[in-house]
Each structure stands twice: as structure tokens, then as C-alpha cells.
Amino acid sequence: MRQLLFCLAALLGLTISAAADTLPPPSQPPKVHVRLIADRDGVKPGSTFTVAVEQNIETGWHTYWLNPGEAGQPTEVKWSLPAGWKAGAIQWPYPIRIPVGPLMDYGYEGKVWLLMDLTVPADAAPGATTLKALVQYLVCREVCIPEDANVELPVVVDPKGAGPASSTAADFAAARAKIPAASPWPMRYALGQDLRLFLASPALAGTARPQDVQFFPAQPGEVTDAAKQSFGVAKDGLVVSLKPGGKMAGLKNLSGVLVLVSADRSVQALEVKAAPGPVPAAEMGGDFNFWLALAFAALGGLILNIMPCVLPVLAMKALALASHAGADRRHARAESFSYAAGAILSFVAFGLAVLALRAGGAAIGWGFQLQEPIVVAGLALLMFAVALNLSGVFEFQPISAGDALARKGGLTGAFFTGVLAVAVAAPCTAPFMATAIGYGFTQSAPVVVGIFIALGFGFALPFILIGLWPAIHRIFPKPGTWMVRFKQVLALPMYAAAGWLVWVLAQQVDRSGLIATAGAALALGLALWLWGRMPMLAGAVKTGVTFGAAVLLLAMVFALSFVAGAKPPAPVTVAAHAGMPSEPYTPAKLEALRKAGRPVFIDATASWCITCMVNEEAALSRPKVHEVFKQKNIALLVADWTNKNPEITALLEAHGRSGVPLYLYYAAGANDAKILPQILTEDQVLKALE
Q1: Half-sphere exposure for 573 (CA within 13 Å, toward CB)
Q2: At residue 318, does pLDDT exceed 60?
Q3: Would you state the pLDDT for residue 247?
Q4: Are 469 and 329 in contact (CB under 8 A)?
Q5: Where is the Thioredoxin domain positioned along the sequence (predicted)?
Q6: Would you call 138 exposed, middle or buried from its count of C-beta atoms within 10 A (0-12, 13-18, 19+)?
Q7: How far apart are CA 376 and CA 502, in angstroms?
């Protein structure tokens, strides 16, 4: 019915347009400006070159993809070419979802390039010629306007040919990167109450898990376009949940485009050609992620209250409220909310501080902070200190000012009790917290603040309930000897966490960095042991021990400075990459290989880069590529940007890139590198290596 209404509306628009032919021409300019752009200055007889049909769309309007969705019409290009010239089909870039009222369109906004390959006849006469095309399209906002544009492109036929135009090379590379690539991973689907598409890729279910996934059907009726889509991970891949359309039951295969958005916001579009088959169970995400994160944050904050370092503070204040709750219920309620305010604001302040570090930190984002060895070493020492505390080596002594404020009665005392409790709980973790916080730091600032508010609310909830209903305090265990045993048990996973972080550090620094970390841990342990002895001392002895602990802490900081300056471990000279022998990239290694006369292929990649993995599977891992590498004795250098590396960053910037992937080929004796497309095919790699 919607399609019928749209067709009637379009017919009415055409009728009105025909009737308006007798009227003066409209004063409004077209909503889309169209032009043709060639990828080279001259074309060779018998060759194929690429032309971009550029649509510059007015803000607020959109044109349509191959499948326009629930309403619309795709762009058509009708060429008027000289005899013998041939034009290929439109190479459609991946679209976006555009809601229009209750409908969902698939199309483009802003500026879009539709690429088409043109073939020059072998007997084309040298000289200038003009290519003409009629571009017809529907441009829509609240209303739809059929427009067309007659465009021309002058080209020069040159028997010598010409290379790609340098002025448009980057734009054509960006346009080609938006064209869906053949999937290196098998796909299958299952039709039940919902339509589930499975992409068999363990990497996408692990370290390279995308942040967002969208499916665009190739044919109308395969899915319900306006329905929400969700995705989740299974054991060996990615599962996308869709609402089937009316025509899905009669189809033998599912086709379309799957768009994956990585953690670094890069986009990879894959062609979907899926046959029916089993789809594993998966926990679906989608629009429930934010609310689930809030629930996890609140639950994690609530669990923090059973930590031994927090429970005594809560019990002390809860009993204080309960002792006078019956006399003045209103005052007890006010104190409970004052405590909650102190706790929640402290969590929010912590979240805002992290956001500030994130905004002023590395361009790759907060999620990669463990790439810094000094951060890993610092976290290992923190876990070690917490473990020593839980083992009973020392106890944190409250700051006198904060403790005095916490001991005060009234609303001020309750507020600073919340602040003090959060400060005590800061080193602690609880189940569900990591999931919630990890999700938050991939989202916008308001989402992060919301998650930390939920953490504070969960943390303060028992105290709020105790303030409102003092009898509830009886369900909480009273401090006793069991807490000492519980603390000692909790120390074990903290020691394990510290050990794991040291193992991570061993992948980032050489032996000197590990020795410095061990020295820092020894100095910290001795300083904390002295701290634990201080309550039993007095006078000059206590002053001397305090001085000794301070010196040891300075020694720890001094040792950590060596970690910051430590070199990475010696790289493996030969490793497997894409099934071929490889070496880590360094400028010195590249220079040495080129001076020796060897051809060099550089693969700038990262373990979290989906596009990189697609290219590795679809092109670099192919037997024919391996054979050419072996025949020509091509050296493969891998510039792994998984960890921060200034040399690789400089390599990217030198070639106009701010991220991976980047593929460079230095032929033997060549002065400059040949830059390959971001989306690779086997044929493109073989052609570049010729």
C-alpha cells in the first residue's frame, strides 16, 4: 500500500510538472548539483578508466541507493557515448538509513560519488572527445522532486596513456573504500520468528568486535526496512537479528550489504550472499545496550558495599541514623539523601576526570590506554598495593580533615561520609562494573556521566534504605573476624591481577623495564609495610619510619621513570603474517632492504582493524599472491599499529593517512612507493606487484 501511495504521489507530481510547462520556469535552483569527474587526465585506446558521477545534495535532502527502501527511486545514468565506447554499471557505495515519517529509506546525504567504469575502444582515434550523460534521480525531504541533469565530460584519447590524476586520487580512493567488498568470511541465515544472519568470523566475536552493525537488503521485501536491527556475538562469529519482510519466505538466498563500524569509527562494508543454514545462539545487543549498562552499573555499585574496606563505614553511619530515626524520621531521611549526594557526586567527578584525560589523550581513544607501558606498570603496582592491604600488611589511615568531616553529625557529616566511602572504594572492583564502564567509554560524554550516576546510586542505595527504614540494618553482617578471612581471600585475585599486568608489560618493554618494575614493587611493598607499623610507634622513631617510607616511595617513582623510558622487547625477526614470512617495520629496515635492491611490501595494520583483516583474508592470504611474493623475493614488512608506535604514525602521516590500513609497494629500484587501495582484492595486489 505504501508503494502504491508513493507511485500515485509521484504520478501526481509528474502531472503537475507537465501542466506547469506553460508557466514561467521556477526560480528555485535544483536540490542536487551533478558533475562528472574522470580518475585520469588522458585515456589510452583499449583501456578502462573510472568516472565519478558526483551528487552534491542540499542539506536536509537525500537521494537513493540501489534498493531505495520503502519508497523512492534509485539514480539512473544514461550515457551518450561515441561509437565503440562502453559504460559499466553503477558501483553503489554503502548507504545510510534515512527515516522519513513511518518509512525507512536507504540513500545518501551530502556529497556522494557513484563510480562507473568506462571502456575505450581499441581503435579510438587520438584527440579530444566529449562524453555526455543524462542523470535522473529522485531527491526527497518531506516531499519528493524528480530531477535530471545533462552533464558532459571532456576526455583526451592518448595512445601513450596517462596515470591517475593526482588532484583527485585521494577522492577516488575514498570513494572506492565505500564500495562493499566481497566477504572473506562465510555467511548463512536462518528464518524463524526473526531473520538471523550469521557471519562466521571468530575475530569479529573477539578483539575486533564492531561497535555497530547495519544490514541493507539488496531487494525490497527481504526485511522490514523500518524495523530495528540488533546484533550480538556467538562463539565463532557475529549474529544480526532482523525482522523478515513479506518476500523473504519465497527467497532461496539473502543478499545485500553488511556495514561494520569499528571501535576507531572506521567503516567496512561487505557484500552479503548468504544461503540457509544453522545459526548459533547469541546474546543480542542493540537498543538495550544503554539500559543494560545502567543496570550493570547500579548492580556493580551495590556490590561494592560488601567490600571489607567499605562496610565498616556504612555500618557506622547506618547505625548512627538508626539510633535516632524513630525520634526524627525526617532528619534521618535527609541524612540518607545527603550521603547519597556525596557518593553520587564523587562518582560523577571521577567520571568527568577520566573524560578530561580521554579528551586530551591519544587520538586512538581511551580504550587503548594499556598501550602505554607506564600505565600498565602503574596499574600493576596499584593491584599489588591493594593485595597487600587485603593481606593485612597495612591499613589505610583516613585523612584527618576528611575523617573529621565524616565524623561530624548532620547533613555535612553525611555528605562527606559518602565522599569518604567512595574514596575508600575507589581501588575496589565488583562484578558488572567493568562491563558497564567499558561500554560507557565507547559512547558520548552524557552516557558516561549517566553510567557513573548509576554507579553512585547503586553504591548509595543501602544507605538510603537504611535511612528510610532503620530496621533494615539488621540484615547486614556486623564487622567481625569473618571480615579478616574474607579480606585475605580477596587478596588472591588482586595478586593474580598484578601478575597478569606484569605479563602484559613483558610484551611492551625489555628486561630493563621489567627489572625497574620489580624494583618499584619492592620499594612500594617496604614503604607500605613501614606504613603499617606506624600506628604502633611514637616520637622520633615514628618520624624516622615516616621519613624512610617517604624515601622508599620516591625510589618507587624513580624506578618507574625507567619503565617510561624502557625500550620495547626485541622484535621477532621472522613471523607469519597472511601466511607469509614477515618482519616488523622500521625505517632502518626499509632503507636497508631498498639499498639491497629488494622489492618491499609494507602492510600497516592493527589487530582491532576490521578492514585490515578483510584485506588479509580476501587478498594477501591468496595462493597466487604468495607465489608472486616468493618468485620476486618481495620482503614483507608489517607495521603493527596495535600498540602506539611513533615510527608507524610518521609513516601514516607521510602518506596522508591518519589510520590503518595502508599498503605500500616499493618496486626494486623505484624512488617512490605505490599506494594500494584501502579495500584490496587479489587482482589489485597482483597488478600492483607487476
Answers
A1: 0
A2: no
A3: 86
A4: no
A5: 549-690
A6: buried
A7: 8
Phi, psi of 134 (to 5 degrees): -105, 115
**Rounded distance between C-alpha atoms, residue 526 and residue 519, angstroms:** 11
| Residue 662 and residue 651 in contact, taking contact as beta carbons nearer than 8 Å | yes
Q: What is the pLDDT of residue 14?
A: 39
Reported as half-sphere exposure (CB side, CA atoms, 13 A), residue 385 has a value of: 20
Rounded Cα distance, 448 and 450, in Å: 5
d(CA 438, CA 211): 12
With beta carbons less than 8 A apart as the criterion, state whether 223 and 656 touch.
no
pLDDT of residue 249: 77
Q: Distance (Å, rounded) from C-alpha 596 to C-alpha 589? A: 11
Phi and psi, residue 420, nearest 5°: -65, -40
* Distance between CA atoms of residues 100 and 61, nearest Å: 11
Q: Give the SS3 label for residue 426.
A: coil
Comparing CA positions, the residue from 138, 166, 170, 134 lying closest to residue 151 is 134
Cβ-Cβ contacts under 8 Å for 235 (sequence gap 6 or more):
202, 205, 280
Residue 539 burial by Cβ neighbours in a 10 Å radius (0-12, 13-18, 19+): exposed
Top-level class of domain 30-165: mainly beta
User: Which position has the grid cell 629496515?
Assistant: 589
The grid coordinates of residue 421 equal 566511602
pLDDT, mean of residues 459-466: 80
β partners of residue 366: none
- As a whole number, mean pLDDT of residues 34-49 equals 93
pTM exceeds 0.90 for this model: no
**Domain positions in the chain:** 30-165, 187-284, 288-370+397-488, 575-688
Spell out the long-range contacts of 499-502 with Cβ–Cβ below 8 A and sequence spacing 24 or more: 501/376, 501/377, 501/379, 501/380, 501/383, 502/380
Which of helix, strand or coil describes residue 54?
strand
Task: Output phi, psi for 305, to 5 deg.
Answer: -70, -15
CA distance linking residue 373 with residue 514, whole number of Å = 10
Cα of 615 vs its chain's centroid, Å: 18
What is the SS3 assignment for 281-338?
CCEECHHHHHHHHHHHHHHHHHHHHHCCCCHHHHHHHHHHHHHHHCCCHHHHHHHHHH
pLDDT band at 488 (very low <50, low <70, confident <90, very high): confident
Other Cβ atoms less than 10 A from the Cβ of 95: the count is 26
**pLDDT of amino acid 320:** 47
- pLDDT at site 346: 84
In this structure, are residues 343 and 422 in contact, taking their beta carbons and an 8 Å threshold? yes
What is the pLDDT confidence band of residue 24, given thresholds at 50, 70 and 90? Answer: very low
In the structure grid, which three cell numbers stand for residue 230, read together? 540488533
Place of cell 576528611: 402
In terms of DSSP H, where are the helices of 360-480?
373-391, 400-407, 410-425, 433-440, 445-468
CATH fold for the domain made of 187-284: Immunoglobulin-like (2.60.40)
Q: Do domains 30-165 and 575-688 have the same CATH topology?
A: no
The pLDDT value given to residue 193: 82
> What confidence tier does 209 reach under pLDDT thresholds 50, 70, 90?
confident
Architecture of domain 575-688: 3-Layer(aba) Sandwich (3.40)
598-654 pLDDT tens trace: 999 999 887 656 677 778 888 999 999 999 999 999 999 999 876 777 788 778 766
